[in-house]
Amino acid sequence: KEQTVIVGQTMERYTKTNTLIVTGGVRVVRHKDGTTIVAQKMNYNSKTKKMILIGNVVVTEKKKNGRIRIIKGDHVVFTPDKKKRTELMVITGNGFVKEIRKGKFYRQASANKIRYFVKKNKDKKKIIENIYLFGFARMITKKQNARAMKIIMKKNVPKKIENVEFVTKVYIQDRKSKDEMRGGYAFYNKISEIMRVTENPSFYVYKDKAMIYSDIIKSYRKVKKVFFIGDVEIVQEDKKMYGEKALFKEKQKKIIITGEPVLIDKNNITYAETVTLLTKKKEVRLSSRFRGTIMSEETPQRRTQQPTREDRIDGYIGDTGGPEVL
After folding, report:
1. Are residues 41 and 22 in contact, defined by beta-carbon separation less than 8 angstroms?
2. Could you tell me which residues come within 8 angstroms of residue 111 by beta carbon, excluding any fewer than 6 positions away?
3. Mean pLDDT across the stretch 13-39?
4. Which pTM was predicted?
5. Coil, strand, or helix at residue 307?
6. How far apart are the C-alpha atoms of 77 and 102, rounded to whole Å?
7. N or C terminus of the chain with fewer C-beta within 10 Å?
8. Taking the alpha carbons of 95, 57, 103, 87 in that order, is the dihedral positive or negative?
9. DSSP-derived secondary structure letter, 1
């Protein structure tokens, strides 16, 4: 049988409603599943197993497989359903969840409100795990730091689905390279390790101080490549590059721009079939045929007003027979 020890300053038990109310320095220890609960007040229904915890709540779960989960919040509600083999946990007021696996940090999440839903099979193994973070949501994993107004994590073991959605004011940082992605919406497939960012996305190469804008960003984490699609703009120091598509090869520190690319370097405008930016060396290479003009200082250089071919006041055409380094 499950052994549970409950400590508190006052206890009230209502047999008709199967309710136990404990107040003042509440401490609950469940020896069977290694759970310890600390709160100012607890309301527990012995029939439905629903538990409401109020005031400086700290729940520590230590599993036999070495997994540890720490839950904090001002108000925590546990609602299990044995028939459906489901468990719902809602944390409000400074919600915080930290997970440790095999003695190492695994994941940490915080938000104004956290909703955690789990469904298990007959062997009590998780087959569905959904986590919703609402209001100034933050998530830290071994690989990423992320912020958004809402973060939704969904895992379905039978269907082999494990996705994360980031909604509104999205900020994602790679913890190793410190590279940053921003946008209005992001979708991450954890199994394939592909990230898609939309709604005015941008990508910042931290070490090389290069900023990239486009309509869509697709990041393939397994091969360390990032694709930029539609209205691409790249800025590094005094250089600006425009095109319809770009590919960032992280290992080679190289950005390849295609789709009628344009290079603006101080007062020079250069057109080419392909423009390559070596972010670490801060060099630009033009492949195949290229042509250039001189731009007046008054010509705007904003992303929304790119120079057109009709703006030329003087030009030249060359065939390098190889890459041109600027």
Report:
1. yes
2. 95, 133, 134, 135, 136, 137, 138, 151
3. 93
4. 0.85
5. coil
6. 27
7. N
8. negative
9. -
